[in-house]
Structure formats: C-alpha cells, structure tokens
C-alpha cells in the first residue's frame, strides 16, 4: 500500500480553524501526521502548494443501480465517478432490483464493494420490497452492515407504518431517510408545477407534494421524540418547516442536492429529460431559500442523489425516469453556488459534504486527523472548467450541468491510502 506525502497544501477541514500550509503523511491507509515540514521519506510525494486539502467527501445519497440495473451503473463505475468527484464514502440507496431488503443482498453488495475504489455503505429498505406494507427486518439488516433505512424513490405512504419504522430505527441507532412526496399530488408530474409548466403545457408536481410529506415526517418525529432525516429538500417551505422544527428541538435533519442550488424550472424549457428529477427543479425563490438554509444551518448536508440512467432511458422527455448523475460535479457545483457567492467558506462547505454526513450516519472520516483513515482529496480552487457529459467517469451521462462552467476542481482523490483519481 505504501506511503504518500502531500506537501504544502492549504488545509480545508471543518474541524480545524487553521488554513495554513501543512504537510500530510499517510502510510498503509492511515494518516500518520499532519504538520509543517514533514521530513520523513515517502513512496510518493505530491506538491500541493496551490491546492486545498479536504477530507474525502461523504455522499449520503447515491443510486449505484447494483444489483439488477447495472446497464445504468454498478458498484465499480459508480465508485469511479465518486473518486473523480472527491467522494471517498457513499451511502448506496436500496431501490435496486431486487430492492435491498435482505441481509444476503447487503452482504453481497459489501463483498462486491471490497474491490471498488470508494467505501460503500448500504442503506436498506424501510418496507419489504419497498411495497409500503410490512417493515423489513431492521436488526438483521443492521447486523449485515446496513447503516440507514429508506424507501427512497417512493414515500412510505402509511403514516402508522412510518411511525413504527422511526421508533424501531431509533432504538437501533439507525437513521431513517425520507423521500418526501405525496404521490396523490405528484402523480404524472414531470416538472415543478408553476408558471413555466403551464406555459409549456407539461404536467407539474406541486411544491405541496413535498411540503405535505415533510410536515408529516416532522409531526411524527416530534410526537414520538425520534430522529428523521429529510432527503433532497427542494422547496423554500420545506426548508422553513425544518428550521422551525429544529427551533422546537425536533430531531430533524435535512439535505439538499447541488442541482437545486444552481438550476431552476427554467432549465426545463429545452424539454430534455436529463433535467428531470424527483423532486423537480423549482423556482428561483426556492433556490435562494435553500442557499440561505445551508448558510444558517437549517440544512445539515449536501448529497448528490446521483441517479444514473442510460441514453435510451432518457431519450423521451415525457416517458423518461426521474434522476440525474452528480458525484463528479458536486463539489465544483457547490463551490460555485455557495463559496464563490459568499454563503459559505470552503471548510463550511466541506462540513456539509463530509463531516456532517459522516456524523449523521456514524461513519469514519469527515475530518483529517493523525490515526484516522487516509481518505482525502486535493481541490484546485482556481480552476474553471466546463462540464462535458462525454468526459465523465460513470456509466451514464445524464448530468444536468452539461455545458456549464464551474469553479474549482478535484485534482486528486485518495481513499484508504491509495490514489483512486488523478486529474489529467
Ligand atoms: Zn428520492
Ligand atoms: Zn434518490
């Protein structure tokens, strides 16, 4: 495995205030020391004078499509895309084929992931087969390696069943991640319901579909005194409800995704399905409210909801499934939307993309310290680049950032002490 010495990088770690030039030495997958002027010999030395050194990102919302839908992505191509984006740990969503609801499926995924270039943590179904009828065997799934519970892609429609899931999960210390959508309100919708959808005569998904579901999850968490994590928050009202609930002491946490920070429903005018996702891109007011919610701590995390689909799947705007890829572009997109605009500093952004998700899921990493895992990335804040869907590393190309110019780029990623990505 060997040793790597990073020289003179600017530390951008949310747990360390100092941003001075430091060296980092890792050996056999572990950080040995972070100091000025390390003199020890190393197998490889990297001059990082003009680069920021970050803990590897922890993406808590990734669809690897493995097993069953591997023509879209698999654990290996997904992890390659992760590495190219500075992601060293990811939470794999369970809406696979079959859905991840048995210990055997979890064990098989973890076995495949052993030779992938990023750490894979399984999320498993709340309900058996994601049918919303019967709870999955949480304790056995946890023993097999599951770290979170979700029926993501769908809500758990039965409120009583969801309450039971949240209580049982709380007793096991497992996090419940909720995809907030009222299917009666969203059914058939292809984009945000509003002025643009009416103009285009495209069926819409109202903000109420997400807001009503977020309100229910908060009500359950508050009534029973148990935690809930709201994924892909896309509306101003959902963010406001989470803010108010947090003030009352409700154990609610929230994440949003990079595309909601840079794009709006206006992007749907070209009727290209790569810009269709669930929840849909919303209005500019929603977008600004999410930036503010990240700044004031209402939203704890940014996760990509990386959702690969083949060209064929995405060919027809009206029939295509929801979702877009995002791991390779996430840090640059967020740096552009949040750091360049002054909403967050780089270490504050890294807290949302690494430290906080690691804490929420109780995973190692999220910060750089001697004795900790050698999972880190080098980021060039001065690089501007244009996203080209044909130059990305995953199996699918459905990025909503194609053609966009972004600030900052990951130039090297190290996971378990191995260089898993190098730019150029
Ligand atoms: Zn979802
Ligand atoms: Zn998702």
From TrEMBL:
Pathway: Pyrimidine metabolism; UMP biosynthesis via de novo pathway; (S)-dihydroorotate from bicarbonate: step 3/3. It comes from the Bacteria. GO terms for biological process: 'de novo' UMP biosynthetic process; purine nucleobase catabolic process. Substrate binds at residues 63-65, 95, 309. It catalyses: (S)-dihydroorotate + H2O = N-carbamoyl-L-aspartate + H(+). PANTHER family: ALLANTOINASE. Belongs to the metallo-dependent hydrolases superfamily. DHOase family. Class I DHOase subfamily. Catalyzes the reversible cyclization of carbamoyl aspartate to dihydroorotate. HAMAP family: PyrC_classI_B. This is Dihydroorotase. It comes from [Clostridium] leptum DSM 753.
